[in-house]
Amino acid sequence: MARLGIDIGGTKISISVGEDSGAILTRERIPTLADEGPEQALKRLLTIAKKYIAEYDIESIGISSPGPISYTEGKMLALPNLPKWEGISLRDHIELELNKPCEMNNDGNACALAEYTFGPYRGCPNLIYLTASTGMGGGIIANGELLQGITDTAGEVGHMVLDINGPECPCGNRGCFEAYCGGGPLAKRLSKELNKPMTMEDLIEAAQKNDPYALNQWEQYCERLAQGIGTLLMICNPEVIILGTIAMHAKDFLLEPVRQALPKYTWSYPLEAVEIVASTLEHVGDLSALALSLEALPSPQS
Q1: Whether the model pTM is above 0.90
Q2: What is the DSSP letter of 34?
């Protein structure tokens, strides 16, 4: 048996086929073309999905989507990068069109499931994943279960407010974790200050070369990241916190200053018990959708 994974992003959609082990058999990417709205994108997506269903013995489907979504209803809510997709009952639409059981969740939760299912910390009962990419999404595994919450917004850690007088966040609040530590908002702010295009990669490279401005900005970034992680340590007391894209790129240049700053933001007990690491999963978007597909069918024990 194989599984079908659909990873939806603001710029691209990846459709993949994988095995229960996490092995990806094939994948194809198409542009989202967000300005067109969902109709054409879904048409392109379904054409590829139907081709794969004809070629492979597909048992179930997983959809990883930007948040926020209604997990309960399988519906996309007010997505900043896909505003025309709001209100689409995506899970039911895909399930009806492809006639396969389907599970859908937001990308932060899906990444946490991917780490829990396929990563080096697989099966770790208390695990947090932070996307640490363009935005700051998250997913929380507590006592072996993914936290959803009453409104399906558990794990939206990027919108914890760290400073009510801080920079504006895309969500509408000020001083959110994402406003400080999301690569997109930070790069936008730096580009405005320097009057030239800046990316997180540019910032990391300049800081590693000891550019004074870049070093100052990097130190502020690491400090705020430590503040956010310290809050999560106090609330969730996990065994491991896994950081995504930016940590995968910067490695110890990021992790060491964060670890050094953390004692200011958390007690020694949870800090001594936790590992804080960069993700090692390649193609995490495809694996996230694949992990969700495994949730679409009841387990044999059920």
Answers
A1: yes
A2: G
